């Protein structure tokens, strides 16, 4: 039976994914860094096998990948874990999935695309989180748009951040904002604030430009030549003070009280604008559920070799199979 390896399973989102994999009855094992006692404890709780290895040691990785057909990498920071694990997946014929929010993982996948295709291996960074939310929303919005030339898309985030997310975000923060212009990634305007209505009762709100991996994935899926990505923060999401002292992440109650939304405007060649919104569960809940559902699909043979996006491989409706998510064309 094809088997899934969840690496970084003791992290905050990895834990959600592992529990969901168990509830689905998937054939899976847990993975973590050498010396991790949390992974061993979780494996005992879920009655599954576990394997420990470090990403910079090819030999132990190859041994750990024996009998594995799909890897779900939940271990950040992804600028350190994605490339060696992608290379190991290509080397061992294992499909690669991750939950990265940083650009690095997607740039690595672009670089390794041809090698992965030759090996018959799929590389799908961002199989959960904003890449599914925004990619599927953009895909639905342009389905009936003739000659789309521009996409402005934004994620409305709310609720507390996990410790891992806060630390990764602080390391990757930059004053430089990127956008897709005439098909190329270029430096954008940091102060280019736009107004969008998320259809959540708050009316039109400010959205700030932010470099999101969707600049790569939406471009890959749609080939719309001009794409800008934004974020609206509902409340004081980003923590202050000593990030290492933060709790692992929000409680289930905090997640349930903080749903996410997304909004998109697609401009056609003739100037017509199509707007759509997404209403969904909290981002951490969504990522844990969507990444596991993506892995389940790949386990039963739903994949395409090379660098791929969830919207392309699973379809634009994939987002609406996760946690009662709803896309609405306005």
UniProtKB/TrEMBL annotation:
One Pfam assignment: Sacchrp_dh_NADP
SUPFAM superfamilies found in the cross-reference section: NAD(P)-binding Rossmann-fold domains (SSF51735)
Domain Saccharopine dehydrogenase NADP binding: 5-124
InterPro entries xref list: NAD(P)-bd_dom_sf, Sacchrp_dh_NADP-bd
Protein name as catalogued: Saccharopine dehydrogenase NADP binding domain-containing protein
The species this protein was found in: Ophiobolus disseminans
